[in-house]
Fold these 4 entries.
Entry 1:
Amino acid sequence: MDIHIVGAGSLGLLFGSKLAQVGANVTIYTRTSSQAVELQDQGLSLITEMNLVTEKTSAVKIRVWDEIEDSYCIEENAWILLTMKQKDLTDAFARKLQHVLGETGRVCCFQNGVGHVQFLEQYLQPQQIYTAITTEAARRDEGAVVRHTGQGETRIGRMGGHAEASEHEIHLINWLQRAGFKAFMSKNIDMDVYRKLLINAVINPLTAIMRIKNGQLLETSERVQCMRWLYEETMFIYRAHNIPVEQNLWEQVNQVCRSTSANTSSMLKDILNGTESEIKWINGSLLRMADDLGIDAPVNRMVYTLVKAMHQSNT
């Protein structure tokens, strides 16, 4: 199977490495030529959860996205996994993606937050766009080494729901399962998306502001209270928009803190590295939803403003 992965961060390298090891034809597209050279020279190495170093994956093809020829198009019925951040989904990128996909290609989006599917629908056919929600955890150690830090689940579907899974969708799921991922087709990916948005909107900004690991949010009553304020306000926004979500999400938020207790959230990593975070597409998306209905959302607005201010202090 031909699988193209755009975004050579920890998640893209994890999926690329494991898929290539079971025989998929994998091409990984990097943002910079220097990373491409690094991956080509060193070969991609995967360290498993048991601290076992797998063999270097030399079968992966490496290309630089910005250096793709204008005439380039992926194979018929091939998949592109988008593992880049939302901030990199620009108009120029989407126009190139439209050409690279052709008429039969499909794209699976792994971005946090919401809004990226609607953005891509300006350039692609709706039936070409899929959403992935994953709880797989990975960390890029250095160079061409990626560490699998936690196994999770990956759910894939089309926003708005659709009929039974097609042959091409089942084919992708089968390859992901063969590579060792717990992958499923979801008939209600919308609920999965908004569940993850809420969890990210509670955990990510607070860990970034307090500069603590996920599990440390549960260590004091004051931190838990901050979580609860964000949770209740976000659930109020969801109810106002008639977004169906489970009623036990508060316990799920706490469980994620416990199960990823040693993890540094992606937003905190961005703050520490001085790079732009996804606050605009996480809590910022909730603020836009609130503004659409004239709802006051002071807690989300406060954490959004604080994280944006932290970015500015790092520049």
Entry 2:
Amino acid sequence: MKAKEVCDRLIEVLESKEYKYLRVNFANPDMVGHTGNIQSGVKAVLTCDECLKRLDEEVRKQKGILLVTADHGNVETMLDKLGKPMTSHTCNPVNLFIRDYDYKGEYVIDESVEHPGLANVTATYINLLGFEQPSFYKPSLIKFI
């Protein structure tokens, strides 16, 4: 897997300031999670942690916004209740982290969103880019004040 190489390239692209929005998928924890090998899972997570740290530093330099989430779990549950390898995706909730280095208090997390989930993330991205999401989208996880 090429997380470090992907991260290097992403930082190059961020430094170019050619794009307003970039999205990346670090697949290491997911792919390694399918093996059931805990030691490899730890290595995959640590690799992605280092990549996220580097990305966060670059986004901070540019006073940008970094969102981190996942579409499902996997590596966080590598053994079943009997101690056997669990190699499938999980249905565990995933977090959404927003690091906005130019935040001026213009929005807050919208606590009124019922059953927030992955379907709400796209509207959130769109709002953070300064646009209103289409009416047929699930609601954003932020509201402007």
Entry 3:
Amino acid sequence: MKIKTILFLLSFSVLFNLNAQDKKVLFIGNSYTDVNNLPLMVRNISTSMGKTLKYETHTAGGAQFSTHWNSIATSGLLEKIQTGDFDYIVLQGQSQEVAFPDGQFNSSVYSYAKKLDSIINLYSPQTKVVFYMTWGYRYGDANNCPYYPPFCTYFSMSERLYQNYSLMAHDFSSLIAPVGAAWRKSIITDSTLVLHSGDNSHPSLEGTYLASCVFYSTFFQDSLSSQDVPPGMNAANCAFLQNISNTIVFDSLAYWLQNENVCDNPTNLTHQISFSTSDTLSAICDLSWNGTSPSYDLRYKRINEENWQRVVVNQNTYQLNLPSGNWQWRIKSLCDNTSQSFWVDTSFAFTASLYQINQNTSSFNVYYTKEIGKIIINIENIYEDLEIEIIDLRGQALIRLNAKPKSGNLKTEIDINNLSNGLYIVKIKSNSSSNSFKIIKT
């Protein structure tokens, strides 16, 4: 359904019995739950592991959190919540809505998820809510990409879903079934095993199987080693996907299951980017955050890479020196030997100039004078008309002017007092040549 232009298209206070062999679950969602009968596959996996899973479903194609909330009294959902005696209730949002920009997410997604979570806690306080973290479209969402860049690729859309499902689970003290995180690891590890179906949105049989593995371990807190092979799959793929699921779930079990050993999250994550005076055009990234923990686990990586770089920090700041690109960093508090917070994630990007830096041409003298806030350009033995551009590190021309030499010489000044401090490229072009120079405004 098409929304107006400013919107986007829609296509442990409760005790866990860790030894319990029986669980009862209500799945609330849409076709991401229905396709390949995810609940039945979870039950079959549970049976193969000697566990019993009873389940009910409440789904509708394309349903959002608001869909379920607005029809809660007439659809039978409220009655299920009140009388079902469930161990877990799974909440799954529409495939795009949890990735919406903050304003739209807060008003049309977060608020309805909160209402559903609250009414579950009211009528069924013994039940734990589990958010079904989904995944990005295989090639991104082409319809929403022009309006919001995180929709443009599988990885960026998945990252946005990760962030917002984690946000809701943290704010509501609920659990996460990290299906989207498991998909991401599987795709990075072996992209030939296709988890999307032909529409590049819904799961293939393998995609549903991986989701089922994650749900099994989330419900039973048990590592999966099933020999059962669903029809249409092979044993090698099953084993591979089980291993992916086990790695993702148990690598951060405290995070996904919100156990009691959780301390305060870092807040107000910020980063400041500056540039070195070397010709490498690498960035100095000063990271900072608020928190009272004695130490922090800080990790960073390029967004499309799998492996994190890790450092333990004993203060609330840290400096990175990075080449240009799209970077992500995350941090969590380490309060004592058994207590840690949830991960808090953020990202940033910067791009060095694509122009080759050339400051060795003898007839050119280009420099910045801080006292007057101007770039000074002196050129000798030049007989062609020139175009001069001041370009930022995104490649955008902020100032453009034409200049005519007199008697083979050019001297001009360019006022850059209105530009922010940082690194800029001065590009000087004629019909026969092009030269670029780096200046740093301080």
Entry 4:
Amino acid sequence: LNGLRDRIVVQCDGQLKTGRDVVVAALLGAEEFGFATTALIVEGCVIMRKCHTDTCPVGVATQNPELREKFAGDPDHVVNFMMMMAEQTREILAELGFRSIDEAVGHVEALDTRKAITHWKARGLDLSPILHQVDLPHGSP
């Protein structure tokens, strides 16, 4: 198309909570995925939006020794979450006929938009501009 795709990496971050979210992002072209808020929640964050005030009531985002004592998180919680996320992602990819996340990147034709188009929030929404399958030259990633 414009010769840029093989010189960039598309990253997706924000509201990635399930393996399905990761697969949809990959099908839309993402190659890297960020999990920030989700990891904080797994560690016990209750989204008080106090991170910048050093008054996190559950001790996730504070340097206050009294508040840090309330922290009940464990790194294994994040490890378990990521393992389950990876497993769900693998299961969905297999259902779609892909052997790896790399194989799925950019395959918008695997997305089923029928439910989205009939949902009351998306009624009348034309998704074709972002779901257009681009014909790439042979050998392009």
